[in-house]
Amino acid sequence: MSQATAVKGPSFVEDVELQGHIIDSLLLPKVLDEILTRGGSFTLKEMHIGQRQEDPSYVRIEVRADSTHLLEEILDAVLDHGAVPVVAKDCDYQIADLDAAFPENFYSTTNYRTQVRLGGEWVEVEDQEMDCGILLDLESKSARCLPMMHVKKGNPIVVGRQGLRVFPAETTARQHLFEFMGSSVSSEKPKGVTVREIAAAMKRTREAGEKILAVLGPAVVHTGSVAHICELIRRGYLQVLFAGNALATHDIEQALFGTSLGVYLERGLPAEEGHEHHLRAINTIRRLGGIKSAVDKGVLRSGIMFECTKHHIPFVLAGSIRDDGPLPEVITDVLVAQDAMRELIRGVGFCLMMATMLHSIATGNLLPAWVKVACVDINPATVTKLADRGSHQTVGVVTDAEPFLRALVEELA
User: Fold this and answer.
1) What's the CATH superfamily of 1-86?
2) Sign of the torsion angle spanned by Cα atoms 284, 246, 268, 231
3) SS3 sequence of 113-166
4) Strand, helix or coil at 413?
């Protein structure tokens, strides 16, 4: 843990430093507020303010508290805002004594870029993900985020917050409108501007050689948006798909029967015995041996799952307790589904979430903070929950899926 020095009797003090774009992002006020509201006090010992928008700033703060415990509590709180002790020490670790459980006092990760100090050097933590621990490789001097269920007895796991550096997204310069919009959500935002900036972000992602991930719910099918998603795939603006049994089932139902939930999408009228169509679609795919087999045999000839198969777009269909069937490709073990999603998240630079609260939140929990997210939903609570869970890089658009996707495709065209 960080060393506290007693001064003037009962007071304990330590210097911390904060650097980057800490003024316009309000990181400095956040740090000072954390110190005061937790019962500490501070002195600004050194400060350099950037003169231009792209210039970083620097501040050195003396933090004082009435006890070692209170000082440690304050230092823990300001660490997540990027403030680290001036006198750096190597991180502490303990050996895991059980499988699938961290040692007591383990460090719980955020989705922000993180470094640990090993052998006097700062080392980047790989596979950044919130709500994990940090596994050390002492021989290679490396570190990576590790989900709790993957802990093995004997693993060296970081404990406490000594020797840790966290880099909130606000410490880097903001260059695009997308980054200024933040995680705010409103049905009254100018959607034309938002769509243009989301399209621009997708173009930048593709130009950078990074992947675009789509997280889709069944309402994409119900609202008549399948053609737009297929167009994104054909234009090269979708490289990974996360969904559930429902999205794939209703997409295939539309391809086979022209209905979604038994309703003809072109006419808006229910089909006779249409309530059976989704189950018959699942049964057809199961009898053929899976989605790819149905495509190869010419039975499945259109739709999102068809385009994913034809364009070799990897997908994860994560199951739930309410699934019918399910389709053969659906992963019914949620922990296995999580790991499959983690594998495909590597290399993702942009994520488009649409019309699915549970899958959006699940994906948000897995994404590092530097992956920009656009969440489109008719329900503003979906985006609010994403922000509450820590996915602060999310831009929310409250609208129906079809008009948004139509405008997005036109903008990308």
Assistant:
1) LOR/SDH bifunctional enzyme, conserved domain (3.30.70.2690)
2) negative
3) EEEEEECCEEEEEECCCCCCEEEEECCCCEEEEECHHHCCCCCEEEECCCCEEE
4) coil
Q: 10 Å Cβ neighbour count for 7?
A: 11
Residue type, 14: E
Residue range 189-245, pLDDT digits in tens: 557 888 999 999 999 999 999 999 999 999 999 999 999 999 999 999 999 999 999
The pair of three-digit structure tokens given for residue 301, joined into one six-digit string: 């000839």
What's this model's pTM, rounded to 2 decimal places? Answer: 0.86
Give the integer Cα–Cα distance in Å for 329 and 319.
10
- CATH no., domain 88-172: 2.40.420.10
Rounded-to-integer distance, Cα 295 and Cα 332, Å: 23
Cα 209 to Cα 12: distance, rounded to the nearest angstrom: 50
Domain range summary for the chain, segments of one domain joined by +: 1-86, 88-172, 175-412
237's tokens: 């603006």
